[in-house]
Amino acid sequence: MALRFFYIFIALVFLSCGNDQEPASRELSSEFQDYWFSGKAEITTYELQQARYGEIRKGHSSLIYVTEDFLPGEQVKANQADEKNIPVLKLNATKKFVTGIYPYSIMQSTFQPLYHTGHALKISASIQEWCGQVYMQLNNRDTYEIVLHSYFQGEADKNLQIDKADLENEIWTQVRIQPDSLPTGDFEMIPSLEYLRLSHQPIQTYKAFGEIYTAENFNVYRLTYKELQRTLKIYYTKTFPFSIEKWEETTTSPEGKSLTTSAVKMARLKTDYWTKNANKNLSLRDSLKLTYE
């Protein structure tokens, strides 16, 4: 118990500098700890219908959640136990789909502190397709420190700092930790790194509106960017562990064409996947309804 409170103290001290709203400590229930500190990750696969280049593309998406210790200075996974480590819920969110002849592979990573309510400590995103690749990373320090590497003209090798604000990427981890802490009403938010890069929008905050309601026996978090003509809806279970069952993202082009990306759960598995790297473990992909790539 004493060590847990020390973790909280270290996390709060580290992140309070430069934060407009100092994070508050968060007590994790025994139910939460039993589920997330079991030494296993939660993997959920989804049937994906991805809007890209004015058409809907078939593919699949995976959300991989796991807890781990995080180094506050370097902002990477800790390899050894240390009282200064910050426990986080990590989300690796992947998408794979094909546009015509060539494939897309997208991955976003979010590292959300568990014992306090502050913003994500780090977010990264990478996009690979046959034209080239893009990498973007946000580190939560005194400000948000952002680096961008891209093969697109005007986007290559950028470094910038912006003031702290709510982050769309952290919505997906907040839902799993404490959904009643999701931002509601009017606020400023930085859209997901995936969206910013696929749409080539400026890296900045945008006016957003958030609300929580019930539909189809799920709780739904709806996020709307009027300026971007974009809406995101995340459907999650009403009770712990607040599993994400599906989501929808609707965007409208400048020409007025509206398309909706959607993802619906196919399968879910809790496993220590990092130990399942032998050929004999390939059958686990079948249980997740994943094709071989």
Structure report:
This protein has 293 residues and is α+β, with helices and mostly antiparallel strands. A 15-stranded mixed β-sheet has the order 8-7-6-5-4-3-2-1-15-14-13-12-11-10-9, with helices on one face. Strand 4 and strand 5 form a beta hairpin. The longest helix is centred in the first third of the chain and has 15 residues. The N terminus is likely disordered.
Kindly summarize this structure in a few lines.
The protein is an alpha+beta fold.
Number of strands: 15
Q: How many strands, what sense, and barrel or not for the largest sheet?
A: 15 strands, mixed
How much is the average pLDDT?
A: 92
Which term fits the overall shape? globular
Our Rg estimate from Cα atoms comes to 19 Å
How helical, in percent, are the residues?
Answer: 10-25%
Unreliable spans are 1-20
How far is it from the N-terminal to the C-terminal residue, by CA? Answer: 45 Å
Label the structural class: alpha+beta
Count of DSSP-assigned helices: 5
Spatially, the strands of the biggest sheet line up as 8-7-6-5-4-3-2-1-15-14-13-12-11-10-9
H/E element string?
A: HHEEEEEEEEEHEHEEEEEH
